[in-house]
Amino acid sequence: MARTRKKSAGPSAMELRQRAVLDKLLSCLLPPETAARAAGELLEVFGSLSEVLVAPEKELLEIAGMNSPAVRLLGATAEAARETLEDQASGLRRVYDTESAASVLFPKLAGRKTEAVVLLLLDGQKRVIYNNIVCEGAISEVPMYIRKIVSLCIDHDAAFALLAHNHPSGQAMPSRNDVVVTRQVELALESVQVPLSDHLVFGSNGCFSFAASDAWNQGRMDMWDFQREQLEIARAMEREYLEKQGGRGDGF
């Protein structure tokens, strides 16, 4: 489905710069006039350069003048930008707060079109000893990665752990499932005495920090609610099973 064009009172200085960058990129493969028109329409439809670079190929091809090689070029550009950010972040060896954590974690997730979960491990001096993607897919749909996180903490003798995941097409605000799973990870890491220092969620509108919000307490309450719901489901299944067994009579 084609997106609705963004309405604007006029291009800002940033929009003009982004249009020039897109124009320069597309001119490598498209005729100059076609590249200029496509650059303008891409920004008009998707709203920003970052949104253009992570847009689905099918939607990019709906823009007049765009072809498969040009779409692949945009994808390669997004990948190159992510690798550049990651390379720059590798020079940051210590993590003291949310800002420094975001600087290390964001490059792993920048430009990704699907959800991924990143684990960052620190030693006792808060130096980075591990920083990598531990699973891909929605955080609520990959429960088995918790065991992997615990194992990595033990293998690297970690003193602190941080999580991050992305919402490629949404806001940075965590979902209820995000909150519940974060609490599950926190409980699992308590068993090996590694505190979960933060969980960052990156979205189109910025970054959300569990540690800098009330999400930790909300996570505990949601976890209790979740456990109660699971217990009620189990009891209902047990009652249904017993009723079926009782209805069979003495035929055994």
Strand and helix map with partners:
Elements: H1 13-26, H2 32-46, H3 49-53, H4 57-60, H5 68-89, H6 98-109, E1 116-122, E2 128-136, H7 145-155, E3 160-166, H8 176-190, E4 196-203, E5 206-209, H9 215-246
Parallel strand pairs: 3-4
Antiparallel strand pairs: 1-2, 1-3, 4-5
Helix pairs in contact: 1-2, 5-6, 7-8, 8-9
CATH topology type of the largest domain: Cytidine Deaminase, domain 2
CATH top level of the largest domain is Alpha Beta
* Uncertain runs: none
CATH superfamily caption of the largest domain: Cytidine Deaminase, domain 2
What CATH architecture label of the largest domain applies? 3-Layer(aba) Sandwich
What structural class results from the helix and strand content? alpha+beta
Approximate strand percentage: 5-15%
The span between the termini is 59 Å
Q: How many beta strands in the DSSP annotation?
A: 5
Provide the succession of SSEs.
Answer: HHHHHHEEHEHEEH
Count of discrete structural domains: 2
Oligomerization state: single chain
How many whole angstroms does the radius of gyration measure?
Answer: 23 Å
> What characterizes the major β-sheet?
5 strands, mixed
Order the strands across the largest sheet as they lie in space. Answer: 2-1-3-4-5
Helix proportion: 40-55%
Mean pLDDT: 80
Q: Please, could you describe this protein's structure?
A:
- This protein has 252 residues and is an alpha+beta fold.
- The protein has two domains: 13-84, Orthogonal Bundle (DNA polymerase, domain 1), CATH 1.10.150; 92-233, Cytidine Deaminase, domain 2 (3-Layer(aba) Sandwich), CATH 3.40.140.
- 52% of the residues lie in helices and 14% in strands.
- The chain is built from nine helices and five strands; from the N terminus they run ααααααββαβαββα.
- α8 (176-190) packs across α9.
- The protein is globular.
- 29% of the residues are buried.
- The model has no long low-confidence stretch (mean pLDDT 80).
